[in-house]
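Hey L., structure's done. Input below.
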Amino acid sequence: MESRLRIPLLLLLACTMRAHAPVPEKRPPNIILIFMDDLGYGDLSCYGALDIRTPNLDRMASEGIRFTNFLSAQAVCSASRAGLLTGCYPNRLGISGALFPRAKVGLSHDETTMAEMLKSQGYATGAFGKWHLGDAPEFLPLRHGFDEYLGIPYSNDMWPVDFSGKPVDTSHRKAQFPPLPVIRGEKVVDTIADLEDQATLTSRWTDAAIDFIRRNRQQPFFAYIPHSMPHVPINASAAFRGKSRQGLYGDVIQEVDHHVGRILETLREWKLEQNTLVIFTSDNGPWLNFGNHAGNAGGFREGKGTSFEGGQRVPCLMRWKGTLPAGLVANQLSSTIDILPTLAGITGAKLPEKKIDGVDIGAILKGDMKATPRRTFNYYYRTNALEAVRRDHWKLVFAHPSRSYIGQPPGVDGYPGPSPENVPMREALYDLRRDPGEQYDVSVQHPDVVRELRAYADEVRKDLGDDLQKVSGNGHREPGKLR
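Output:
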């Protein structure tokens, strides 16, 4: 009888202990952020590309959210990356344009990056690809919150090689550049010497990211994958050459899509899909004067290096299976600078102590189509000149000298065509609902909107200045400087 009673009593005791045991908190989601270089709005089939097939990215769109009104922080490499990783307009950080090899400045250690924010929540952090926020060791990713880094420190065209793929002589402007290094941690482990080496970069960064995911799958992880393609010089590996109907550029994009598929498959294999937010976007629009080696701005005006929509409107896909609504198209205004505060909201991380400019777009991720977390984008800067401001669908472009690709013959097979830098642009008001190509000035019909946006611009200039108006703002912070 005693032995018969012992088993029910033990079961009762076990159930009681289980009932009073602490319930583990829900693990925060893994974050994978894939950041392309010079990818155009119209380069993916889910954004209208005609002769490029991107089935894995299309699947991301069908299983998550496709953003159609998403802006980069600025239409050039270093500035856009600074904005993405800090949630700030780049000019607030003292970083505009693109940094060159041996730059004396970089991202300041006084700024809080996305990686540092997530590390405070117990995330493993890794960066795999193009950094471009200072190439001195004290500016590299390991000094900004990343546990691991494998990549190149700046753009893949900053090397002593001509457009032909052959080394330059000492009289060439590129002779000043050192060999293009591959850095692991803070040590050079390889160099990219020719176009065949360039063809390995997409797979190389993906291999490193997948290895990082596998090794850190038991804890929350943040994998930042800033690809070096399709920034020129482009090349695809042998397995993808000739596979698209759009020549080498299409081959490059289809190879990128394949490697995105490998990452998605890794998540499925390790049963991580339900707890991983995957974000795919681009640093700016296409470098159009490279012709058939450049992307498609999707019908928007101009491209990289301009404040028109072709320069800053970029594709953005987000997938988090079982959490984000599937197949949603989000037309609300949003930007790369909004990713950091949105991740803070998702993970419970504390926002940076210094002022940021991004807003939490979590309501959009929940499927609220009436949510308008961002109504303005007031800081269309190029270098230190304010070129435009925007509220909702209204965009006021100020008179300014601009790069322009319009009417210029594009280059062919890796060689650039002309892209004059000082083409005069007049002040104009555009209604982006009806005129996303920014062709029709409606300032005469809407003088009240012009007045309101000019007033916004005056506040912007007080904050971050404007070289064109010879105004110094008071909201600047200093970039990092070599000691």
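The first strand starts at residue 30 and ends at 36. The radius of gyration is 24 Å.

-- N.
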